[in-house]
Amino acid sequence: MLRRKNLRPVAQLTIPTWIFLALVVLIPFFYGVYISFLNINLASFLPPSFVGFDNYQTVLAASETWSTLRITLIITFIGLLTQIPIGILLALVLHENLRGTKIFRSILITPMLLTPVAVGLTYRFMFDTDLGVINWALGSIGIEKVNWLGSQTSALFAIIIVDSWQSIPFVMLLVLAALTAISPSLYEAARVDGASASQIFRRITLPLITPTLLVITMIKIMDFLKLFDTLFILTRGGPGNATTTLGLWTYKTGFVFLEFSRAAALGVIITIITLPVYFLWRRASRGVR
Amino acid sequence: MILKRGASYSLLFLASFLSLFPLFWTISTSIKDRVDTYSLPPKFFSFTPTLKNYISLFSLEKFWQIYSNSIIITLGSTFICLVIGSLAAYALARKPRFRGRTPLEGLMIAIRALPAIVLLLPIYKLSSYLGLYDSKLGLILIFAGFNIPFAIWLLMSFFEQIPVEIEESARVDGASTFKLFTRIILPLAAPGLVATGIFVSLLSWNEFLIPVIMAGENSKTLPVLVASFISNRTLDWGPMAAAATVALIPIVLLTVVIQRWLVAGLSSGAVKE
Phi and psi (nearest 5°) for A38? Predict the structure, then answer.
């Protein structure tokens, strides 16, 4: 027994990791909270002073905070409704293990690996009103030109399309893992009892992958809050602020308008919004595996 | 069997087409002449390929510096992630309970959960005090910090597959902990180290928000260069597509190599406690 105990690696091995995580998470986080109570403006040379909750009051009273939060929620909601069903469908088809499944799986996960900035650029070209291949394809089936990135509704659609293109593989992979974990004997028993394919899906598959779907939903909500690269390339939050999410608004507040302390206050608010999602995610992930 | 076999295949082919078309379109635009790029209907195959766009991209004053920045920062941060991450992953994989495990995992998850901008605002301010703004070393350290959790999650799954008995017999033969780790554990986990290394370097290679905030003229990386094309008034799609292709090609090549481990990497951290 004693020897076995000695064999265990020691917790000290995690010290270097602690140092790095302290440098990029712990210290910045508390420093960010501290900044949010000062009045730092990057364009001003006055020494910062303590202003209490002023930044929070300003930020919570600003209409942009609420309109960008609303846009974040719209993107999240429509994005989830698009990505989860398509991800499930693709996972189901891959799970059938048809000939060539491995190759198809490799092809289908490619989009999630590609540099988001380069992807955004490609789509921006494809969404171009006059020269874009998307409008050309729509035109050839008789649909009039859409100024994709020019109006709020169509720009939001474009953003959701690009994010879906990169995110559906993630949904697909997690659902596929959940499907693989279901015992084939359950399906056999159901088939012996004469259950139809849709009955099997609703009564067996869906309930068994529900924990995974919850995990995916929580992770995706957090990822929509993080959305930055493709959004930055496609519209930069425009026209105006019509497609600016809360995360992008925080960036603009800090690095475009140089209101650093206000941006820090927005950061704290985003953290508070993330917390319940985070706890639901940890809870849901206990139900998986 | 939800769908008929024919319907399944049609769906797979459609999805594959949609997955690959943008990649194909970027690469083909990058080797088109201006006239072909702007022609309608679009030219899919009937054009004479040219290297013009690449030549004008490579002759950009800062291109090679930016390209080597990207490589240095990617390799440097990946190296740190592997060294530090493998130590922590080994402890986490072999020792289920120790003081500090829960908060450590909490911090790792915080990186996955929080929008990076929340942490990058204060990091920006702190690093200008430390003189790490616009420095490659600063970017290497920050990239490493943000990617370590993914390295640990992935490495843990490989360490867990190594049977404890092997370590026990090595220990009986008198191996020290250091020897045990470097001579036995690491070689056995070599495929895992390679896969993790490639996966983490992919994350670094693609990273945009960190360098866009933390890099000035000296330490700019490829994604920042690619993004900077968009702010030009005259959008010139050819060189832009060439820049995007230069960023994308290494990924496509690497992922073909690590196909086998990719799935584990892509879902890492999602469902593990």
Answer: -105, -175
Q: What is the pLDDT of residues B141-176, one digit of tens each?
A: 999 999 999 999 989 988 888 888 888 888 888 878
Q: CA B79, B83, B86, B91: dihedral to nearest 10 degrees?
A: -150
Cβ pair A277:B171 closer than 8 A:
no
Handedness of CA A204, A208, A212, A217 (dihedral sign): positive
State the total domains in chain A.
2
- State the DSSP code for A43: T
Asked if the structure places residue B241 within a domain, the reply is no
The nearest alpha carbon in chain B to A286 belongs to B273
What value of ipTM does the predicted structure carry? Answer: 0.90
Instruction: Classify residue B87: in a domain, yes or no.
Output: yes
Instruction: Show which of residues 155-184 on chain A sit within 8 Å of chain B, judged by CB atoms.
Output: 165, 169-170, 173-174, 177
* Closest-approach residue (CA) in chain A for B205: A115
Structural contact between residues A7 and B164, judged by C-beta atoms closer than 8 angstroms: yes
Say whether pTM exceeds 0.95: no
Of B202, B22, B267, the C-alpha closest to A87 is: B267
CATH of the domain at A142: 1.10.3720.10
CA B21 to chain centre: 22
Rg over CA atoms, chain A = 24
Range of the structural domain that residue A100 is part of: 36-288
Report how many domains make up chain B: 1
Residue B194 CB-half CA count within 13 A: 11
